[in-house]
């Protein structure tokens, strides 16, 4: 009789990630979803939008909704700094391609995170959902929450695409 040991690494998660900071916590998103990184632009508010939707911007003739990731993750709002920026991403949901911007405190680097440096998301109990976290990346002494952008924004993306 053999004992099957549960694998702690998640092969489909390994790869290159753009890492960024929100309230001193580090996150990573798959680099292939990133279109560009821009400084915070003047936004036009959208009446009736969720509190975390800061508005829309005109990015080379395309209207792009911008979400304040601090507010989306229930982190206290703060004034923008010189490092505050918008990461413009593209996500596919239900065969619809959606471009949106995420306001973050600062961008760190592009990091190649291997299987050996990714752990499964720990269970946090029934009251805390970690569905939008692909895994936990480790680089040196840093811990990086690897975000699943579809699960992070799926409810918002459905509203945006309607």
Give the helix level as a range of percent: 10-25%
Count the E strands: 11
CATH topology: OB fold (Dihydrolipoamide Acetyltransferase, E2P)
How many structural domains in the coordinates?
Answer: 1
Shape: globular
Highest CATH level, the class: Mainly Beta
CATH homologous superfamily assignment: CheA-289, Domain 4
Structure, explained:
With 162 residues, this protein is mostly beta strands. The chain has a single domain, classed as CheA-289, Domain 4 (OB fold (Dihydrolipoamide Acetyltransferase, E2P), Beta Barrel). The chain is built from 2 helices and 11 strands. The protein has helices at 69-72, 149-161, and strands at residues 15-22, 25-30, 34-39, 53-59, 62-68, 85-93, 96-104, 106-113, 118-119, 133-139, 142-147. A 6-stranded mixed sheet has the order 8-1-2-11-10-9. Strand 4 (53-59) and strand 5 form a beta hairpin. Mean pLDDT is 85; it is low at 1-11.
């Amino acid at each position: 009789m053999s004992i099957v040991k549960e694998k702690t690494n998640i092969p489909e998660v390994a790869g290159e990630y753009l890492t960024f900071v929100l309230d001193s916590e580090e996150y990573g998103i798959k680099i292939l979803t990133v279109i560009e990184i821009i400084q915070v632009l003047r936004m036009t508010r959208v009446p009736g939008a969720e509190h975390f939707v800061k508005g829309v911007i005109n990015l080379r003739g395309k209207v792009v909704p911008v979400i304040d990731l601090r507010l989306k993750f229930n982190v206290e709002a703060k004034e923008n700094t010189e490092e505050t920026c918008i990461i413009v991403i593209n996500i596919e949901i239900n065969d619809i391609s959606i471009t949106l911007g995420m306001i973050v405190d600062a961008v760190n680097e592009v990091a190649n995170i291997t299987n050996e440096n990714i752990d499964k998301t720990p269970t946090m109990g029934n009251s805390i959902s970690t569905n939008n976290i692909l895994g936990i990346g480790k680089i040196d002494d840093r811990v990086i929450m690897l975000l699943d952008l579809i699960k992070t924004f799926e409810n918002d993306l459905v509203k945006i695409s309607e």
